[in-house]
Specification:
It comes from Paenibacillus nuruki. Keywords: DNA-binding, Transcription, Transcription regulation. One of its GO terms (molecular function) is DNA binding. It holds the Pfam family GntR. The structure is a single chain. This protein has about 250 residues and is mainly alpha-helical. It folds into 2 domains: about 15-80, Winged helix-like DNA-binding domain superfamily/Winged helix DNA-binding domain (Arc Repressor Mutant, subunit A), CATH 1.10.10; about 90-250, GntR ligand-binding domain-like (Four Helix Bundle (Hemerythrin (Met), subunit A)), CATH 1.20.120.530. Helix content is about 70%, strand content about 5%. The chain is built from 11 helices and 2 strands. The chain has helices at about 15-30, 45-50, 55-65, 90-100, 100-125, 130-140, 150-165, 170-185, 195-210, 215-240, 240-250, and strands at about 70-75, 80. The chain has a two-stranded antiparallel ribbon. A hairpin with a 5-residue loop joins strand 1 and strand 2. The chain is globular, with a radius of gyration of 20 Å.
Length: about 250
């Protein structure tokens, strides 16, 4: 009897050890688990951490440097340091996002399914210490001296914690994947007191319904929050007036 194999098998592509190291470090930087100016361990220590050769670590670090994610510095205070992602994100990503908007739209569609359902489950399973951690993230985000990079990092932590609180590892993994993909676009967003207040108000409202264990309301608020985020990104990428104003300010 003849066996018919599916036609959608992917072809095997070799992946080097350095690629695995690069992927993990890139994800940690994009998700802001490694913050700007944070110094990475030296090559020898990283080789032990990843159970890999120093050559593989060196290759991964070279790729990260090419991507503008890290910087190697020499001197008494030298080493390898994480660079701020938001500082020049509009130069790095706007045209990339615009030229590949169809693909980005698919990610936003996926997010609209995953994160509201994660919030629904989180309302049922969230623990007291997780609620306390979410409260701390929000309080830090409204401090006057909260930098743009820290604000963006706290936003990521807030969403990842809700996914973790869903008590479903699949949702948690999915949200990590989503945030890794969309963070470059979110880093395009302006940073001002108005933005901080709007975002914080939305997060505080969501925290209140999570604390009340209101799953349906948590789902609705998360969906509204994500829809607003996607709309803001779209206008940031394609609005001609916004782009003109930014170019004018850069030339001053």
């Amino acid at each position: 009897m003849r066996t018919y194999f599916p036609q959608q098998f992917e072809k095997v592509s070799p992946k080097k050890v350095s690629d695995f190291i690069f992927d993990q470090l890139e994800e940690s930087i994009i998700l802001k688990e490694l913050l700007p100016e944070e110094q990475l361990p030296n090559e020898r220590d990283m080789a032990v951490m990843f159970n890999a050769s120093r050559l593989a670590v060196r290759e991964a670090l070279s790729r990260l440097e090419e991507e503008g994610l890290i910087e190697k510095r020499v001197g008494a205070k030298g080493g390898t340091f994480v660079l701020p992602l938001t500082l020049n994100s509009h130069h790095r990503h706007r045209e990339q996002i615009a030229s590949n908007w169809e693909s980005w739209s698919k990610v936003f569609e996926y997010r609209l399914i995953i994160e509201p359902e994660a919030a629904f489950l989180a309302a049922q399973h969230i623990q007291a210490e997780q609620l306390h951690q979410l409260q701390q993230y929000l309080e830090m985000s409204i401090e006057q001296d909260c930098s743009r990079e820290l604000f963006r990092a706290l936003d990521v932590k807030f969403h990842l914690m809700i996914a973790k609180a869903s008590d479903n590892a699949y949702f948690e993994k999915a949200v990590r994947e989503i945030r890794t993909k969309i963070n470059p676009a979110l880093d395009l967003m302006p940073y001002s007191q108005e933005v901080r207040v709007r975002n914080s108000d939305s997060h505080f409202e969501l925290l209140d319904v999570l604390r009340a264990h209101d799953g349906e309301r948590s789902r609705i608020l998360m969906r509204q929050h994500i829809e607003q985020s996607a709309s803001s990104i779209y206008h940031r990428v394609f609005d001609h007036d916004i782009r003109t104003q930014e170019k004018e300010s850069e030339s001053l």
